[in-house]
Design a protein that fits this description.
254 residues; mainly alpha; 14 helices; single chain; globular
Length: 254
């Protein structure tokens, strides 16, 4: 049985081992709880049964467990400069055994593990099926929704995109990937300006229209677009083109 309140207590105890005054730790803790709520909301919208509703909420709580150790070891959220935080989270949960503090038995272990591994991949592993596929889709949509929310807040710009964002340029590889396919190779990200496009490109990867409608209703990508103005005019033109492409796509879905 899944006891969400118990899971929250275990998670809080785990996070308390880290520096709770660290702004990155605070940001990720709050992110986890918002993603869990979004996962719950989406599960309800999809009319899932009680078991899957609880499982979606729990996976939301667990999906970024690896972030705290990533921050402690590497002082960065950037996986390519440190470690894959999804894989690290699964190592902590399933190799080190933390999952048994959350759940008494292994009934849901494989679904949880697959969802966490898939949540930050460029795309879901094609071998994923059944409940694992369903919950991988839910956590990916919920996670992206909160990242877009965080990106829409002025105070977060430096933390997420770097202090030199407005002085940077959008690279050719990232721009062309966005325009040609709506897909961005994470390995091509060179600057905070590229990461802005990466976040806009999230809209093309939504599995369900319900949370895509949520980001449109709350104007997340509009706020992000309005806040960013590069000193390089070509980058501004590229940003506008990508923003309009993303907006057009959202309208076709919602």
């Amino acid at each position: 049985m899944i006891d969400i309140e118990h899971a929250k207590q275990v998670l809080n105890k785990y996070i308390d081992k880290y520096d709770i005054n660290d702004e990155q730790i605070k940001l990720k803790k709050n992110h986890i709880y918002r993603v869990s709520k979004l996962s719950l909301k989406l599960a309800f919208c999809l009319n899932l049964g009680k078991e899957d509703v609880c499982l979606a909420e729990l996976i939301g709580l667990l999906h970024d467990v690896g972030r705290f150790e990533q921050i402690r070891r590497y002082h960065t959220f950037i996986d390519k400069d440190s470690v894959n935080h999804g894989e690290l989270g699964c190592e902590i949960l399933f190799k080190d055994g933390l999952i048994r503090d959350f759940l008494d038995d292994d009934k849901y272990d494989q679904v949880i593990k697959n969802a966490i591994l898939n949540h930050n991949r460029p795309s879901i592993d094609p071998n994923t099926s059944g409940k694992s596929l369903l919950h991988s889709k839910i956590i990916r949509d919920a996670d992206k929704t909160d990242i877009l929310y965080l990106s829409s807040i002025q105070e977060n710009l430096d933390v997420i995109f770097g202090e030199k964002l407005f002085d940077e340029k959008i690279s050719d590889e990232v721009y062309n990937g966005f325009i040609n396919s709506g897909r961005i190779n994470y390995n091509n990200l060179q600057t905070g300006a590229d990461v802005v496009l990466c976040h806009l490109a999230y809209v093309f990867d939504y599995n369900f229209a319900e949370l895509l409608a949520h980001i449109e209703e709350n104007g997340y990508i509009d706020k992000l677009y309005d806040m960013v103005s590069f000193r390089d005019e070509e980058s501004n033109k590229r940003l506008e083109k990508c923003y309009l492409k993303a907006k057009k796509y959202i309208k076709t879905r919602v």
